Amino acid sequence: MTTTAGGAVHAEGGSRRDFLYVATGVAGAIGTALAVWPLIDQMNPAQDVLALASTEVDLSPIVEGQSITVVWRGKPVFIRHRTADEIATAQGDKVEELRDPQSDAERAPRAEWLVLVGVCTHLGCIPLGQKSTDPRGDWGGWFCPCHGSHYDVSGRIRKGPAPRNLEVPPYEYLDDTRIKIG
Fold this sequence. Notes:
Elements: E1 2-3, E2 9-10, H1 16-41, H2 47-51, E3 55-58, E4 67-72, E5 75-81, H3 84-92, H4 104-107, E6 113-117, E7 140-144, E8 149-152, E9 157-159, E10 171-175, E11 178-181
C-alpha cells in the first residue's frame, strides 16, 4: 500500500485516476449502447409486415375447376382446384422433356389442389389463366401475354422465354379444407 500526498491510501498498481478512466469508459459505453439501440431496433420488420408472413386460406368454397387468387407477402398466389382431366394431363407428361423438370407430385402433394406464386419467372409479370375467360396458353394452364410464356396445368414452363416453372410457395395443410401459406 502507498500513501499519497493528501494522505489517501491506495492498493499497489492502481490509482484513483485509473479507476475514474475505467468508470468513465464503462458509463460512456453503456450510454452509447442505450442511444444506438433505438436506431438498430427500428430496422426490424413492423408488426403489420410480420402479419403478412403467412396467410391462411379456406379451400371449402372453391369448386372443382375453379381458381382463386390470394395475396401473400405482396405477391399473388394462385390456388386451383383441379379437375380429374387436369390431374391426368399433368401426371401424364414426360418430366425429362421439360425445360425445368419437376413432376406434378413434387408440385402438388394433394393432386386436386395446386398452389403457385402467380408471378412469371421471366420478368415478373402476372400470367393470365385464373378466370375462365382468360387465355390459358397452349397447355391449358397460364399464359403470360407480355412475352409469350406458356405454363401447363401444373404451372411448369412449356414455351416462351421464362426460364423456370411458376414457384410453389411453402405451404401446409392445417386440415382437409384449410392451408397455411408461408
